[in-house]
Amino acid sequence: MALAARRRERLQTLAAEIERGGRRALVIPCDVTRDGDLEHAVALTRTAFGKLDVVVANAGFGVAGVLETLALDDYRRQFETNVFGVLRTVYATLEDLKKTRGRLVLLGSVSGHVGLPGSSAYSMSKFAVRGLAASLAYELEPYGVAVTLISPGFVESEIRQVDNRGVWRREPPPRPIPRALVMPAPTAARRIVRAVARRRREAVITGFGKTAVIVQRHLPWLLTAAVRRFGIKSRGEPR
Question: Is 210 known to be catalytic?
Answer without folding.
Answer: no
